[in-house]
Recover the amino acids of this structure.
Protein backbone atom coordinates (compact mmCIF):
# COMPACT_ATOMS: atom_id res chain seq x y z
CA UNK A 1 0.00 0.00 0.00
CA UNK A 2 2.76 2.38 1.01
CA UNK A 3 4.74 1.63 -2.16
CA UNK A 4 1.59 2.22 -4.16
CA UNK A 5 1.28 5.74 -2.77
CA UNK A 6 4.96 6.23 -3.39
CA UNK A 7 4.64 5.13 -6.99
CA UNK A 8 1.63 7.38 -7.54
CA UNK A 9 3.55 10.32 -6.09
CA UNK A 10 6.48 9.70 -8.39
CA UNK A 11 4.19 9.37 -11.40
CA UNK A 12 2.53 12.68 -10.65
CA UNK A 13 5.78 14.68 -10.60
CA UNK A 14 6.17 15.07 -14.39
CA UNK A 15 2.51 15.99 -14.66
CA UNK A 16 2.84 18.70 -12.03
CA UNK A 17 6.05 19.93 -13.61
CA UNK A 18 4.29 20.12 -16.96
CA UNK A 19 1.54 22.32 -15.55
CA UNK A 20 3.95 24.54 -13.65
CA UNK A 21 6.01 25.06 -16.82
CA UNK A 22 2.83 25.74 -18.73
CA UNK A 23 1.70 28.26 -16.14
CA UNK A 24 5.02 30.08 -16.27
CA UNK A 25 5.33 29.81 -20.06
CA UNK A 26 1.81 31.11 -20.58
CA UNK A 27 2.58 34.12 -18.45
CA UNK A 28 5.29 35.18 -20.91
CA UNK A 29 3.54 33.99 -24.07
CA UNK A 30 1.94 36.53 -26.43
CA UNK A 31 -1.75 37.20 -25.82
CA UNK A 32 -4.28 34.88 -27.45
CA UNK A 33 -2.04 31.86 -27.87
CA UNK A 34 -1.64 30.04 -24.60
CA UNK A 35 -3.83 30.70 -21.58
CA UNK A 36 -2.64 29.90 -18.08
CA UNK A 37 -3.89 26.57 -16.65
CA UNK A 38 -5.22 28.30 -13.53
CA UNK A 39 -7.35 30.57 -15.71
CA UNK A 40 -8.52 27.57 -17.74
CA UNK A 41 -9.64 25.77 -14.59
CA UNK A 42 -11.52 28.80 -13.35
CA UNK A 43 -13.21 29.22 -16.75
CA UNK A 44 -14.17 25.57 -16.83
CA UNK A 45 -15.62 25.66 -13.33
CA UNK A 46 -17.59 28.67 -14.38
CA UNK A 47 -18.82 26.86 -17.51
CA UNK A 48 -20.04 24.04 -15.32
CA UNK A 49 -22.06 26.32 -13.08
CA UNK A 50 -23.37 28.67 -15.77
CA UNK A 51 -26.71 27.28 -17.06
CA UNK A 52 -26.21 29.04 -20.41
CA UNK A 53 -23.08 27.03 -21.08
CA UNK A 54 -24.89 23.67 -20.70
CA UNK A 55 -21.57 21.86 -20.33
CA UNK A 56 -23.09 19.07 -18.28
CA UNK A 57 -25.91 18.63 -20.78
CA UNK A 58 -23.44 18.45 -23.67
CA UNK A 59 -21.42 15.90 -21.76
CA UNK A 60 -24.49 13.75 -21.24
CA UNK A 61 -25.37 14.06 -24.95
CA UNK A 62 -21.98 12.63 -25.85
CA UNK A 63 -22.29 9.94 -23.18
CA UNK A 64 -25.63 8.88 -24.58
CA UNK A 65 -24.13 8.38 -28.04
CA UNK A 66 -21.07 6.62 -26.70
CA UNK A 67 -23.18 4.49 -24.39
CA UNK A 68 -25.58 3.30 -27.08
CA UNK A 69 -22.91 2.60 -29.68
CA UNK A 70 -20.64 0.95 -27.15
CA UNK A 71 -23.41 -1.20 -25.69
CA UNK A 72 -24.57 -2.38 -29.11
CA UNK A 73 -20.99 -3.12 -30.15
CA UNK A 74 -20.45 -4.95 -26.85
CA UNK A 75 -23.41 -7.23 -27.38
CA UNK A 76 -22.93 -7.89 -31.10
CA UNK A 77 -19.13 -8.06 -30.87
CA UNK A 78 -19.10 -10.50 -27.99
CA UNK A 79 -21.78 -12.76 -29.42
CA UNK A 80 -20.02 -12.91 -32.78
CA UNK A 81 -16.65 -13.26 -31.08
CA UNK A 82 -17.84 -16.25 -29.07
CA UNK A 83 -19.52 -17.91 -32.02
CA UNK A 84 -16.53 -17.48 -34.32
CA UNK A 85 -14.07 -18.40 -31.60
CA UNK A 86 -15.79 -21.61 -30.59
CA UNK A 87 -18.54 -23.22 -32.60
CA UNK A 88 -18.06 -21.93 -36.12
CA UNK A 89 -14.51 -22.63 -37.06
CA UNK A 90 -14.72 -22.50 -40.83
CA UNK A 91 -16.73 -19.28 -40.61
CA UNK A 92 -13.88 -17.90 -38.56
CA UNK A 93 -11.45 -18.61 -41.40
CA UNK A 94 -13.90 -16.98 -43.76
CA UNK A 95 -14.70 -13.82 -41.83
CA UNK A 96 -11.86 -12.94 -39.48
CA UNK A 97 -9.48 -11.80 -42.26
CA UNK A 98 -12.28 -9.62 -43.62
CA UNK A 99 -12.98 -8.19 -40.17
CA UNK A 100 -9.28 -7.47 -39.72
CA UNK A 101 -9.41 -5.40 -42.91
CA UNK A 102 -12.48 -3.53 -41.63
CA UNK A 103 -10.58 -2.83 -38.42
CA UNK A 104 -7.76 -1.25 -40.39
CA UNK A 105 -10.01 1.24 -42.19
CA UNK A 106 -9.38 4.63 -40.67
CA UNK A 107 -12.62 5.29 -38.81
CA UNK A 108 -12.18 9.08 -38.98
CA UNK A 109 -11.96 8.90 -42.75
CA UNK A 110 -15.31 7.21 -43.08
CA UNK A 111 -17.27 9.63 -40.89
CA UNK A 112 -18.58 11.45 -44.03
CA UNK A 113 -19.84 8.13 -45.40
CA UNK A 114 -21.77 7.51 -42.20
CA UNK A 115 -23.24 11.00 -42.54
CA UNK A 116 -24.44 10.13 -46.05
CA UNK A 117 -25.79 6.76 -44.96
CA UNK A 118 -27.52 7.75 -41.74
CA UNK A 119 -27.92 11.51 -42.03
CA UNK A 120 -26.46 13.83 -39.41
CA UNK A 121 -27.80 13.05 -35.97
CA UNK A 122 -28.11 10.47 -33.24
CA UNK A 123 -28.21 7.45 -35.55
CA UNK A 124 -25.09 8.47 -37.38
CA UNK A 125 -23.17 9.12 -34.16
CA UNK A 126 -24.21 5.82 -32.62
CA UNK A 127 -23.30 4.01 -35.85
CA UNK A 128 -19.85 5.58 -35.88
CA UNK A 129 -19.18 4.63 -32.28
CA UNK A 130 -20.55 1.15 -32.97
CA UNK A 131 -18.31 0.72 -35.99
CA UNK A 132 -15.20 1.84 -34.14
CA UNK A 133 -15.96 -0.24 -31.03
CA UNK A 134 -17.01 -3.53 -32.52
CA UNK A 135 -13.69 -4.59 -34.05
CA UNK A 136 -11.50 -4.57 -30.96
CA UNK A 137 -14.31 -6.24 -28.99
CA UNK A 138 -14.98 -8.90 -31.59
CA UNK A 139 -11.38 -9.79 -32.26
CA UNK A 140 -10.32 -9.85 -28.61
CA UNK A 141 -13.22 -12.05 -27.57
CA UNK A 142 -12.80 -14.34 -30.56
CA UNK A 143 -9.10 -14.77 -29.92
CA UNK A 144 -9.68 -15.44 -26.22
CA UNK A 145 -12.50 -17.92 -26.80
CA UNK A 146 -10.34 -19.79 -29.27
CA UNK A 147 -7.61 -20.17 -26.69
CA UNK A 148 -9.64 -21.52 -23.80
CA UNK A 149 -7.75 -24.29 -22.03
CA UNK A 150 -8.92 -27.46 -23.80
CA UNK A 151 -8.25 -29.54 -20.69
CA UNK A 152 -10.91 -27.65 -18.79
CA UNK A 153 -13.42 -28.23 -21.55
CA UNK A 154 -12.50 -31.91 -21.71
CA UNK A 155 -12.82 -32.25 -17.94
CA UNK A 156 -16.26 -30.65 -17.97
CA UNK A 157 -17.48 -32.56 -20.98
CA UNK A 158 -16.27 -35.79 -19.42
CA UNK A 159 -18.77 -35.14 -16.65
CA UNK A 160 -21.53 -35.05 -19.22
CA UNK A 161 -21.97 -31.28 -19.19
CA UNK A 162 -24.20 -29.79 -21.87
CA UNK A 163 -22.88 -27.27 -24.36
CA UNK A 164 -24.64 -24.51 -22.47
CA UNK A 165 -23.05 -25.60 -19.20
CA UNK A 166 -19.62 -25.73 -20.87
CA UNK A 167 -20.14 -22.19 -22.08
CA UNK A 168 -21.33 -20.88 -18.73
CA UNK A 169 -18.81 -22.75 -16.59
CA UNK A 170 -15.71 -22.78 -18.77
CA UNK A 171 -15.63 -20.61 -21.88
CA UNK A 172 -17.29 -17.52 -20.45
CA UNK A 173 -15.35 -17.25 -17.18
CA UNK A 174 -12.12 -18.10 -18.97
CA UNK A 175 -12.55 -15.30 -21.49
CA UNK A 176 -13.97 -12.74 -19.07
CA UNK A 177 -10.69 -10.89 -18.39
CA UNK A 178 -10.07 -10.62 -22.14
CA UNK A 179 -13.60 -9.39 -22.72
CA UNK A 180 -12.83 -6.48 -20.42
CA UNK A 181 -9.57 -5.86 -22.24
CA UNK A 182 -11.54 -5.56 -25.48
CA UNK A 183 -14.10 -3.28 -23.86
CA UNK A 184 -11.35 -1.08 -22.48
CA UNK A 185 -9.81 -0.60 -25.91
CA UNK A 186 -13.27 0.05 -27.32
CA UNK A 187 -14.23 2.74 -24.82
CA UNK A 188 -11.02 4.60 -25.55
CA UNK A 189 -11.70 4.48 -29.28
CA UNK A 190 -15.30 5.50 -28.64
CA UNK A 191 -14.12 8.70 -26.95
CA UNK A 192 -11.88 9.60 -29.87
CA UNK A 193 -14.61 8.90 -32.36
CA UNK A 194 -17.45 10.74 -30.70
CA UNK A 195 -15.48 13.95 -30.30
CA UNK A 196 -14.34 13.75 -33.91
CA UNK A 197 -17.83 13.01 -35.21
CA UNK A 198 -19.34 15.84 -33.19
CA UNK A 199 -16.69 18.26 -34.39
CA UNK A 200 -17.52 17.51 -38.01
CA UNK A 201 -21.28 17.67 -37.88
CA UNK A 202 -23.46 18.04 -34.82
CA UNK A 203 -25.58 20.48 -32.87
CA UNK A 204 -24.79 19.10 -29.44
CA UNK A 205 -22.20 17.09 -27.57
CA UNK A 206 -18.69 17.68 -26.32
CA UNK A 207 -17.11 17.85 -29.77
CA UNK A 208 -19.68 20.40 -30.86
CA UNK A 209 -19.14 22.42 -27.66
CA UNK A 210 -15.44 22.43 -28.31
CA UNK A 211 -15.69 23.47 -31.93
CA UNK A 212 -18.16 26.23 -31.02
CA UNK A 213 -15.70 27.63 -28.48
CA UNK A 214 -13.12 27.59 -31.23
CA UNK A 215 -15.42 29.60 -33.49
CA UNK A 216 -15.89 32.09 -30.68
CA UNK A 217 -12.17 32.07 -30.02
CA UNK A 218 -12.76 31.42 -26.33
CA UNK A 219 -9.21 30.33 -25.67
CA UNK A 220 -9.73 29.30 -22.05
CA UNK A 221 -12.59 26.99 -22.93
CA UNK A 222 -10.87 25.53 -26.01
CA UNK A 223 -8.02 24.37 -23.84
CA UNK A 224 -10.44 23.58 -21.05
CA UNK A 225 -12.55 21.29 -23.22
CA UNK A 226 -9.50 19.36 -24.29
CA UNK A 227 -8.42 18.88 -20.69
CA UNK A 228 -11.95 18.00 -19.65
CA UNK A 229 -12.33 15.35 -22.35
CA UNK A 230 -8.96 13.94 -21.39
CA UNK A 231 -9.98 13.69 -17.75
CA UNK A 232 -13.20 11.92 -18.73
CA UNK A 233 -11.27 9.44 -20.87
CA UNK A 234 -8.89 8.79 -17.98
CA UNK A 235 -11.81 8.16 -15.65
CA UNK A 236 -13.38 5.65 -18.02
CA UNK A 237 -10.08 3.95 -18.58
CA UNK A 238 -9.58 3.72 -14.83
CA UNK A 239 -13.03 2.20 -14.39
CA UNK A 240 -12.47 -0.47 -17.02
CA UNK A 241 -8.98 -1.23 -15.76
CA UNK A 242 -10.48 -1.84 -12.34
CA UNK A 243 -13.07 -4.20 -13.81
CA UNK A 244 -10.46 -5.99 -15.87
CA UNK A 245 -8.24 -6.43 -12.82
CA UNK A 246 -11.12 -7.73 -10.74
CA UNK A 247 -11.66 -10.58 -13.17
CA UNK A 248 -8.00 -11.03 -13.92
CA UNK A 249 -6.98 -11.96 -10.39
CA UNK A 250 -7.01 -15.71 -10.93
CA UNK A 251 -5.37 -15.49 -14.32
CA UNK A 252 -2.48 -13.40 -13.09
CA UNK A 253 -2.02 -15.55 -10.03
CA UNK A 254 -2.34 -18.80 -11.92
CA UNK A 255 0.30 -18.01 -14.49
CA UNK A 256 2.89 -16.28 -12.32
CA UNK B 1 -18.75 -60.51 -15.86
CA UNK B 2 -16.33 -57.85 -16.97
CA UNK B 3 -16.99 -54.28 -15.92
CA UNK B 4 -15.24 -52.83 -18.96
CA UNK B 5 -14.90 -54.80 -22.15
CA UNK B 6 -12.86 -53.25 -24.98
CA UNK B 7 -13.30 -55.26 -28.15
CA UNK B 8 -11.32 -54.93 -31.42
CA UNK B 9 -11.14 -51.20 -30.98
CA UNK B 10 -9.62 -49.17 -33.82
CA UNK B 11 -9.27 -45.48 -34.35
CA UNK B 12 -7.43 -43.73 -37.14
CA UNK B 13 -6.39 -40.18 -37.79
CA UNK B 14 -5.85 -38.51 -41.10
CA UNK B 15 -7.91 -36.31 -43.33
CA UNK B 16 -10.90 -37.80 -45.04
CA UNK B 17 -10.15 -38.35 -48.70
CA UNK B 18 -6.51 -37.39 -48.36
CA UNK B 19 -4.04 -39.56 -50.24
CA UNK B 20 -1.62 -39.94 -47.39
CA UNK B 21 -2.00 -43.17 -45.54
CA UNK B 22 -4.29 -43.23 -42.57
CA UNK B 23 -2.52 -43.40 -39.28
CA UNK B 24 -3.77 -45.90 -36.76
CA UNK B 25 -3.72 -44.62 -33.21
CA UNK B 26 -5.33 -47.83 -32.05
CA UNK B 27 -5.72 -51.08 -33.95
CA UNK B 28 -7.57 -54.16 -32.73
CA UNK B 29 -7.29 -53.13 -29.16
CA UNK B 30 -8.68 -55.68 -26.70
CA UNK B 31 -8.83 -55.44 -22.93
CA UNK B 32 -11.17 -56.70 -20.28
CA UNK B 33 -11.37 -55.21 -16.80
CA UNK B 34 -13.34 -56.72 -13.93
CA UNK B 35 -15.47 -54.91 -11.40
CA UNK B 36 -13.28 -53.35 -8.73
CA UNK B 37 -10.07 -54.17 -10.51
CA UNK B 38 -7.07 -51.85 -10.64
CA UNK B 39 -5.54 -52.02 -14.09
CA UNK B 40 -2.56 -49.98 -15.24
CA UNK B 41 -1.54 -49.34 -18.81
CA UNK B 42 2.09 -48.75 -19.75
CA UNK B 43 3.42 -48.07 -23.17
CA UNK B 44 5.82 -45.96 -25.13
CA UNK B 45 4.72 -42.48 -26.13
CA UNK B 46 2.58 -42.59 -29.22
CA UNK B 47 0.91 -45.86 -28.28
CA UNK B 48 -2.54 -44.34 -28.36
CA UNK B 49 -3.12 -44.01 -24.63
CA UNK B 50 -4.75 -40.61 -24.90
CA UNK B 51 -6.90 -41.83 -27.78
CA UNK B 52 -7.99 -44.79 -25.71
CA UNK B 53 -8.95 -42.59 -22.76
CA UNK B 54 -10.89 -40.20 -25.01
CA UNK B 55 -12.83 -43.16 -26.35
CA UNK B 56 -13.46 -44.51 -22.87
CA UNK B 57 -14.86 -41.22 -21.61
CA UNK B 58 -16.89 -40.90 -24.76
CA UNK B 59 -15.24 -37.73 -26.02
CA UNK B 60 -14.72 -39.43 -29.36
CA UNK B 61 -16.17 -42.44 -31.14
CA UNK B 62 -14.41 -45.63 -32.21
CA UNK B 63 -14.26 -46.42 -35.91
CA UNK B 64 -14.52 -50.14 -35.48
CA UNK B 65 -14.96 -52.29 -32.43
CA UNK B 66 -16.66 -51.21 -29.26
CA UNK B 67 -16.34 -50.40 -25.61
CA UNK B 68 -18.85 -51.98 -23.25
CA UNK B 69 -19.33 -50.85 -19.70
CA UNK B 70 -21.69 -53.10 -17.78
CA UNK B 71 -22.48 -54.70 -21.15
CA UNK B 72 -23.71 -51.39 -22.55
CA UNK B 73 -21.79 -49.58 -25.30
CA UNK B 74 -20.30 -46.20 -24.42
CA UNK B 75 -22.30 -43.56 -26.22
CA UNK B 76 -20.88 -40.37 -24.86
CA UNK B 77 -19.63 -38.83 -21.67
CA UNK B 78 -21.55 -39.78 -18.56
CA UNK B 79 -21.19 -39.63 -14.82
CA UNK B 80 -20.57 -43.39 -14.46
CA UNK B 81 -16.97 -42.67 -15.48
CA UNK B 82 -14.61 -40.06 -14.16
CA UNK B 83 -11.25 -39.01 -15.51
CA UNK B 84 -8.33 -37.45 -13.72
CA UNK B 85 -6.43 -35.66 -16.43
CA UNK B 86 -2.75 -35.04 -16.77
CA UNK B 87 -2.00 -31.60 -15.34
CA UNK B 88 -5.03 -31.54 -13.01
CA UNK B 89 -7.34 -29.38 -15.15
CA UNK B 90 -8.64 -27.53 -12.11
CA UNK B 91 -10.61 -24.35 -12.62
CA UNK B 92 -8.33 -21.48 -11.59
CA UNK B 93 -11.25 -19.19 -10.72
CA UNK B 94 -12.96 -21.75 -8.51
CA UNK B 95 -11.97 -22.57 -4.96
CA UNK B 96 -11.10 -26.14 -4.03
CA UNK B 97 -14.65 -26.64 -2.83
CA UNK B 98 -16.21 -25.24 -5.98
CA UNK B 99 -13.89 -27.37 -8.07
CA UNK B 100 -14.87 -30.49 -6.18
CA UNK B 101 -18.54 -29.65 -6.58
CA UNK B 102 -18.42 -29.22 -10.37
CA UNK B 103 -19.65 -32.71 -11.23
CA UNK B 104 -22.40 -32.42 -8.63
CA UNK B 105 -23.51 -29.12 -10.18
CA UNK B 106 -23.78 -30.80 -13.56
CA UNK B 107 -25.63 -33.68 -11.93
CA UNK B 108 -28.06 -31.15 -10.45
CA UNK B 109 -27.43 -31.96 -6.80
CA UNK B 110 -28.87 -29.25 -4.51
CA UNK B 111 -26.46 -26.84 -2.84
CA UNK B 112 -26.73 -28.16 0.71
CA UNK B 113 -26.15 -31.73 -0.31
CA UNK B 114 -23.28 -30.65 -2.56
CA UNK B 115 -21.60 -29.09 0.41
CA UNK B 116 -21.89 -32.23 2.53
CA UNK B 117 -20.49 -34.39 -0.25
CA UNK B 118 -17.63 -32.04 -1.05
CA UNK B 119 -16.77 -31.81 2.65
CA UNK B 120 -16.55 -35.58 2.80
CA UNK B 121 -14.27 -35.97 -0.19
CA UNK B 122 -12.09 -33.02 0.64
CA UNK B 123 -11.44 -34.72 3.96
CA UNK B 124 -10.86 -38.05 2.25
CA UNK B 125 -8.05 -36.61 0.13
CA UNK B 126 -6.64 -34.79 3.14
CA UNK B 127 -7.37 -31.25 2.03
CA UNK B 128 -9.52 -30.21 4.99
CA UNK B 129 -8.79 -26.56 5.79
CA UNK B 130 -8.09 -25.72 2.16
CA UNK B 131 -11.73 -25.63 0.99
CA UNK B 132 -11.62 -21.94 0.20
CA UNK B 133 -8.18 -21.84 -1.37
CA UNK B 134 -7.69 -21.38 -5.07
CA UNK B 135 -5.74 -23.98 -7.04
CA UNK B 136 -2.78 -21.65 -7.58
CA UNK B 137 -2.39 -21.39 -3.83
CA UNK B 138 -1.79 -25.15 -3.57
CA UNK B 139 1.24 -27.31 -4.27
CA UNK B 140 1.22 -29.74 -7.20
CA UNK B 141 0.41 -32.68 -4.96
CA UNK B 142 -2.47 -30.85 -3.33
CA UNK B 143 -3.85 -29.81 -6.70
CA UNK B 144 -3.77 -33.42 -7.79
CA UNK B 145 -5.63 -34.45 -4.65
CA UNK B 146 -8.25 -31.81 -5.37
CA UNK B 147 -8.58 -33.16 -8.90
CA UNK B 148 -9.09 -36.66 -7.52
CA UNK B 149 -11.67 -35.42 -5.01
CA UNK B 150 -13.52 -33.69 -7.84
CA UNK B 151 -13.92 -37.01 -9.63
CA UNK B 152 -14.73 -39.05 -6.52
CA UNK B 153 -17.36 -36.51 -5.47
CA UNK B 154 -19.86 -37.49 -8.14
CA UNK B 155 -19.24 -41.14 -7.41
CA UNK B 156 -18.44 -42.73 -10.77
CA UNK B 157 -18.03 -46.54 -10.91
CA UNK B 158 -15.00 -46.27 -13.12
CA UNK B 159 -11.96 -44.08 -12.48
CA UNK B 160 -9.78 -43.28 -15.46
CA UNK B 161 -6.44 -41.72 -14.67
CA UNK B 162 -4.09 -40.21 -17.23
CA UNK B 163 -0.59 -40.08 -15.75
CA UNK B 164 -1.97 -38.27 -12.74
CA UNK B 165 1.30 -38.22 -10.78
CA UNK B 166 3.65 -37.39 -13.64
CA UNK B 167 4.09 -33.78 -12.58
CA UNK B 168 4.67 -34.19 -8.84
CA UNK B 169 8.02 -34.83 -7.19
CA UNK B 170 9.14 -38.35 -6.28
CA UNK B 171 8.29 -38.18 -2.58
CA UNK B 172 4.87 -36.65 -3.08
CA UNK B 173 4.28 -39.17 -5.82
CA UNK B 174 4.77 -42.07 -3.42
CA UNK B 175 2.47 -40.54 -0.83
CA UNK B 176 -0.14 -39.96 -3.53
CA UNK B 177 0.15 -43.53 -4.80
CA UNK B 178 -0.45 -44.93 -1.35
CA UNK B 179 -3.35 -42.56 -0.83
CA UNK B 180 -4.86 -43.62 -4.12
CA UNK B 181 -4.54 -47.27 -3.10
CA UNK B 182 -6.26 -46.67 0.21
CA UNK B 183 -9.05 -44.67 -1.46
CA UNK B 184 -9.45 -47.47 -3.97
CA UNK B 185 -9.57 -50.05 -1.19
CA UNK B 186 -12.20 -47.98 0.63
CA UNK B 187 -14.40 -47.26 -2.36
CA UNK B 188 -13.99 -50.41 -4.43
CA UNK B 189 -14.00 -48.56 -7.72
CA UNK B 190 -12.76 -49.95 -10.99
CA UNK B 191 -9.58 -48.10 -11.95
CA UNK B 192 -7.81 -47.78 -15.27
CA UNK B 193 -4.55 -45.97 -14.72
CA UNK B 194 -2.25 -44.85 -17.53
CA UNK B 195 1.42 -44.25 -16.77
CA UNK B 196 4.91 -44.16 -18.22
CA UNK B 197 6.41 -45.36 -15.00
CA UNK B 198 6.91 -49.13 -14.74
CA UNK B 199 7.38 -49.06 -10.99
CA UNK B 200 4.10 -47.24 -10.59
CA UNK B 201 2.36 -49.58 -13.02
CA UNK B 202 3.46 -52.72 -11.21
CA UNK B 203 3.16 -51.30 -7.70
CA UNK B 204 -0.45 -50.20 -8.01
CA UNK B 205 -2.07 -52.77 -10.23
CA UNK B 206 -3.88 -56.06 -10.23
CA UNK B 207 -3.09 -56.25 -13.92
CA UNK B 208 -0.62 -54.38 -16.12
CA UNK B 209 -1.47 -54.02 -19.80
CA UNK B 210 1.66 -53.39 -21.84
CA UNK B 211 1.01 -51.62 -25.10
CA UNK B 212 2.91 -51.63 -28.35
CA UNK B 213 3.75 -48.54 -30.30
CA UNK B 214 1.68 -47.28 -33.21
CA UNK B 215 -0.66 -48.81 -33.97
CA UNK B 216 -1.53 -49.05 -30.30
CA UNK B 217 -2.59 -52.49 -29.21
CA UNK B 218 -2.27 -54.61 -26.10
CA UNK B 219 0.92 -56.60 -26.33
CA UNK B 220 0.49 -58.53 -23.16
CA UNK B 221 -1.46 -58.41 -19.93
CA UNK B 222 0.54 -59.33 -16.85
CA UNK B 223 -1.17 -60.39 -13.65
CA UNK B 224 0.32 -58.75 -10.59
CA UNK B 225 -0.20 -61.17 -7.73
CA UNK B 226 1.53 -59.11 -5.08
CA UNK B 227 -0.26 -59.19 -1.71
CA UNK B 228 -2.97 -56.66 -0.79
CA UNK B 229 -3.38 -54.31 0.95
CA UNK B 230 -0.25 -52.94 -0.54
CA UNK B 231 2.02 -49.97 0.12
CA UNK B 232 4.37 -49.02 -2.66
CA UNK B 233 7.33 -48.41 -0.38
CA UNK B 234 7.23 -51.86 1.22
CA UNK B 235 6.42 -53.88 -1.86
CA UNK B 236 9.06 -52.26 -4.03
CA UNK B 237 12.04 -54.20 -2.74
CA UNK B 238 10.58 -57.71 -2.83
CA UNK B 239 11.91 -60.26 -5.33
CA UNK B 240 8.43 -60.81 -6.76
CA UNK B 241 8.14 -57.13 -7.53
CA UNK B 242 11.50 -57.07 -9.25
CA UNK B 243 10.62 -60.04 -11.44
CA UNK B 244 7.40 -58.39 -12.55
CA UNK B 245 9.15 -55.08 -13.06
CA UNK B 246 11.73 -56.75 -15.25
CA UNK B 247 9.07 -58.59 -17.25
CA UNK B 248 7.30 -55.33 -18.07
CA UNK B 249 10.58 -53.61 -18.82
CA UNK B 250 11.53 -56.35 -21.27
CA UNK B 251 8.24 -56.09 -23.08
CA UNK B 252 8.75 -52.36 -23.49
CA UNK B 253 12.26 -52.84 -24.88
CA UNK B 254 10.93 -54.39 -28.07
CA UNK B 255 9.28 -51.15 -28.98
CA UNK B 256 11.61 -49.57 -31.46
CA UNK B 257 11.11 -46.13 -32.87
CA UNK B 258 8.90 -46.52 -35.91
CA UNK B 259 10.49 -45.90 -39.29
CA UNK B 260 10.12 -42.36 -40.59
CA UNK B 261 8.68 -39.47 -38.72
CA UNK B 262 6.36 -40.33 -35.88
CA UNK B 263 2.77 -39.74 -36.81
CA UNK B 264 1.29 -36.78 -35.02
CA UNK B 265 -2.20 -36.31 -33.76
CA UNK B 266 -4.08 -33.49 -35.43
CA UNK B 267 -4.27 -30.22 -33.54
CA UNK B 268 -7.42 -29.78 -31.54
CA UNK B 269 -9.58 -26.74 -31.14
CA UNK B 270 -12.22 -25.54 -28.75
CA UNK B 271 -14.82 -26.46 -31.36
CA UNK B 272 -13.59 -30.06 -31.48
CA UNK B 273 -13.81 -30.33 -27.75
CA UNK B 274 -17.32 -28.97 -27.47
CA UNK B 275 -18.85 -30.97 -30.25
CA UNK B 276 -16.39 -33.24 -32.00
CA UNK B 277 -18.84 -34.67 -34.49
CA UNK B 278 -20.44 -31.48 -35.62
CA UNK B 279 -17.79 -28.89 -36.31
CA UNK B 280 -18.96 -26.61 -39.05
Amino acid sequence: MKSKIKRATIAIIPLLAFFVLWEVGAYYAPRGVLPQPTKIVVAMLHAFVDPKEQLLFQTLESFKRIGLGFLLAGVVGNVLGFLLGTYFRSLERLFIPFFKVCEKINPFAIIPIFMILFGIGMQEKVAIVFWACIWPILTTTQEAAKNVDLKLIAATRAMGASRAKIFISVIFPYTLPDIFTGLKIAIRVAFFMIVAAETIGASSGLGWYYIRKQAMYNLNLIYGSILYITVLAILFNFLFTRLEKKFLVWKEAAFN
Amino acid sequence: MAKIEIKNLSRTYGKKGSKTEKFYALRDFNLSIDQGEFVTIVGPSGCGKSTLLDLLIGLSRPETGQILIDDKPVEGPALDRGIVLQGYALFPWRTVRKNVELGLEIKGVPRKERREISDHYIKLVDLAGFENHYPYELSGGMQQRAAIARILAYDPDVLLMDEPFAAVDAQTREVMQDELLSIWEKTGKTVLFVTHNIEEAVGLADKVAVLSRSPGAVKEVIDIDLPRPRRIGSVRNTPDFNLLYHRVWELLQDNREPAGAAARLPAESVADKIMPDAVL
Remarks:
- Chain A has two domains: 1-34, 36-255.
- The CA atoms of residues 195 and 207 of chain A lie 4 Å apart.
- Chain A has a mean pLDDT of 90.
- The interface with chain B takes residues 85-91, 145-161, 163, 165-166, 169-171, 173, 250-251, 253-254 of chain A (CB under 8 Å).
